[in-house]
Structure formats: structure tokens, C-alpha cells
Input
Amino acid sequence: MITIQGKGVSTGVAAGPLYFYQRVKSEIARTTVTDTDAEWQRFKDAQAKAIDQLGELAEKARAEAGDEAALLFETHQMMAEDLDYEEAIEEGIKGGTNAEAVVSDVSVQFAEMFATMEDAYMQARAADVKDVSGRIIAILTGAVQGGIDSDVPVILAADDLAPSETVQLDKSKILGFITEGGSGSSHTAILARTMGIPAIIGVGTQLKSEYAGRDVIVDGATGTAVLEPDVETRARLMKKREEQLKTLEMLAQLKGKENVTKDGHSVRIYCNIGNPEDVHTVLTNDGGGIGLFRSEFLYLGCDDFPSEDYQFEAYKRVLTEMDGKEVVIRTLDIGADKQIGYFNLPQEENPAMGNRALRICLNRPEIFRTQLRALYRASAYGKLCIMFPMVTSVWEVREAKKLCEQVKKELTSEGIAYADDVQVGIMIETPAAAIMSDRLAKEVDFFSCGTNDLTQYTLACDRQNSDLGRFFDPHHPAVLRLLKLVADNAHKNGIWVGICGELGADLQLTETFLSIGIDELSVSPRSVLPLRKKVLETNVAQCRDKLLGDLASDQTQI
Amino acid sequence: MKSFDYTITDPVGIHARPAGILVKEIKTYPGVTVTVTKGDKSVNALKLMALMGMGIKQGDTVTVSVEGENEDDVATKIEEFFKTYF
Output
């Protein structure tokens, strides 16, 4: 029995084999083959396996998100066995080149055909061809697609996972996470909380590659992972797991209830999501709306800028499925820890303070315009709120709003419908925005506080650096006082204010948030019901004066 | 051979998902060949990527011909399919 201690960032207990995340090798060897019949058979086998895998993905998508989602994978299946595609590959192999090199060549050739078409939608299909071919090549070379090649679900171990890697993971195969690095705000942690599975981060060198395949139990509440536990330890942890499942069941009974405190104070509880597929989890957890839809997935999942139509379809899908409930979509927020190759952003000394989010959008309005057009077009299908990230100045908001007005004018002149009640708001995640919130409130319809970045920038403390743990304190009075200032300024100007950072789900602060008058808390779907329970137990009238007094004086922890 | 003309009304034209469903649909009629023609270019509708590669857009008129067993019935069904999906 070996005990590994890290920091628990997502609660729950899970047991399974330890599996190390595999990164796909990008180099493809080119060799000459003499037995071309055998090589052709090797391709046919790989093709069949790819079609099987896609079939499984289609079924998974159907179960999670319905027929429409499954169809994408079924289309990929058909591409994999497309007659012309197969013919081109056969020709290459019969010419004496190895299968993986031929598939790679043919992939480029077909992708090129789509990429050179005039229509933006068809151009985007180039990515589908590459995706399908990549899958076949991965099977041929033995590399692992999507990071997990296991028949049974696993506890996934990695150094740390990039956002683009988490997007592509086969989530049905993951029981829990253990990572060497990372922090409570890293993408692995956020993903784990969204999925409702345990995660332990920052275990460093305790994680050894020879542990691969061995049984492990992770406890996300204590941050402990036990490799090959003894009978007693296993029994204790499995009992804990039982208890947690019971708690979850009890929470399920809170579904359908209003979020109202004992003294009749109500608050909206919305969800943070990063993918249209997550809508399903929002609805099963009874989220009242979507308070933060991170639009980055559209950019991370592509090899080139996603087209207007492609984005429109994704936004439309979320709005349609949310069926008239509010959906706050945050415009592109890349830069800092989220990098995308095709943006060609120069290396920066200090990316967190560099060219990111709204700054990129205002400097490169052509990228922003595509997204805004897609958003306004989608607004006809539900209740859309558009939110700009990383604001520091009033002029930035005015410039962004001007672009919105232009886009609306364009759509009107093209005869394309859009909703006329789209709310436009901003994230408050810099001290500048919080301090200027009296002025900013006159420009927008709502504020949403991103507490991860607000903490990072207020405390001058890198959220990705696991060594800074105790210095990165979102409960710091400086952060809480800024939140109160923002809420007061919002209400003075008659607009609503929410919190969409991780802090929104922190039950130790729920009373404080309700006392300062936060109107909306947007949390990961799994946190909706625990938060509702806390709200139902709270009496704002009783705690308000004391908490606000503490905040104004020096009584909070300093 | 049985054929009909159809003008595309879908804003995205003949795109991947419905083209994929079309392939599935055609496969349910064994012994039938469906050809889509636009201008001087023709493709077998089973060839998904070639069909998409024609770049058929909203407002384009295509000729669809059906040849093989029960071609009259199948052509009616394929025409309905085009009306529903494209």
C-alpha cells in the first residue's frame, strides 16, 4: 500500500486502475512496403476499428445529448469508408508506401479540397477529414487517440492537462484525476468539478510511471490517493463513497425547489459550462440558466478560426435546448493559460497581463465580428446575454458595444432575424473594473464577477502556481470588499450582478454573497443542489449586519 | 432511369449531416444508383465527400437521377428526402 498526498480539488471517492494520459505522437514514418496486399489489409483493419470507435462515440453522444449529436460521429464513420477516399488510399498503398503515410497524404489532399471551397461551412469540414484520418493513423501507429485507450474506466494520471486536451477526453472512461502539477483553478480541476468526479492535484514526483495499471482509490475531499490499499483502508474508503452517494440522493430531492432563504430572499442559481454537451448536466441538476458559457471550446477544438455558421450552430443549440432560460455566453477568452496555435500570438513575458480576451478581440475586430454575428443570429432562438471578459476601462466596453451595433445593423440590412432584448454585460475580474464599476454600470445590463482572475489580479498571485497555495486566498477581505463595491454600484444603477467564478459555489461564503445582494450565482452543474440546500437554510436578515460589519471592520481574516 | 430537378432551399446547401443521412437512406435501397448532377459535374450520391465537394449551395438547382430496382418508388422517396433535408 502506497499513500500519495496532494491537494483535493473536487470531492468524491473513486476506485479503479491508474492510467497515464498518452500524448499522440505527431511524427509519421514513411517507409516502402513490398507486401502491398498485407499493408492494404492493415489499413482495412484500422479503418474497421476506427468505424467501431466512432460508432461507440455516436452511441455515447446519443445517450448524453441526443440524435443530433450522434449524427456528427455517424458522418465521420461515412467519411472513413467514403469510396473515393478509400480508392485514393488503395492506390497509394499499392504504389508501395506504408499505410499511415498514405492516409496522411490522402487526408491532406481531401482536406485541401474542402479548405479551398468558397463556403465557410465546407472549409470547416477539412477538420472532419483530418479528425477521421488522425483516428485511423493513431490506430495504425498504435498511438492513443483522445488520451485513453482502455476498455474499463480509469483513474487518469497526468502531469497536467491542457484545455484542448480536456475537451477531447472520452469522459465516460474517467473515474477520477491525479495530476502532478496544476492548481485548484486549473482546467483539470474545473473539468473534474463539472463532471462531479474526484480530483487530486499537485502530487509532484510521488506519482511514478511504474504505478500504471495498479489499483488506486482517490479521495478528493482529503486529497489522498491510495495505491493497492489494504483491506481495512479499502473498506473505510468504500464506506465513505456509499455515504456520499446517499448525500447525492438526498440532494436530488431538492430538485424543482425555489432558491429562497428562510426570510424570503431569492437568488438565481445558474451554471458554468464549456461545451454544448454540458447543457444536459445543467438540466439534470436543475440549473436555472447558464451564467457562463465559455466559448473557447469552439476555438480550441478547431485547427483554424471557426466559421460564423459553425459558431452559430453551437450557440443556437445551447439556446434551443435551454428552452427560454437565460444563457450568458462569454465572448472569446484566450491568451494567458489558454493558447491556440493559429492565433499566432507572440510569446509574452507575462501572458496573464498580456494580450488576452477582449484585448485580442478589440485589436483584431475581424475575429470578434464573426463571433458577434454568430451570437446575434443565435439570439433569435432563446434568451441570450452576451458577456465581455477582461475589461479594465469604459472605452473598451463602448468600443465593443459599437461593434455589436454594427453587427445588428448588418443583420438587419441582410434581413436576418435577431432578438431585440439581448442583454450585454461584462465580467468583473480586474481590480480596475471593480473600482470603476460605478461608471461601467451605466454602460451595460449586468455584471458577472470572475473570482479566479479577480483574486489573481487583486492579490498579485498566479492562480496556476501550485507553490502559492496559501497566498492565493479568494476569501481575502480585499477580494470580498471589491465584490461588495461592485454589487452596490450595480444596484445603484439598476442592473443585476452575479458571480461566475469558482467562489460562487463556496458554501462558506454563501451568506456573505446573499448579504451583499448578489443576484445570481453561476456554479458548476454539480454544485447547484448543494448550493440550493445552503440557500434554503440561510436567514439573511439574521446574518447580514454582522457579516457586513465584519467586512467593513477588520474582523475578517487578514 | 427516373429523374427530378430540385432547387436547394437550405441556407447551408448540401452539407455533411444531411448528406450523411442521404447516404444511409440510399443504402436501404439495394441495387439502386443515385446520381446528383449540377452543371457539367455528376457524382454518385453514395460518395459523401465528392457530393459535399460539389459545393452545392442554397439556390442551386440540381438534377437527381435514380436508376435500378423500383426506381419510380425510390425516386419519389428520394425527392421527399431532398424536400425535407435540403
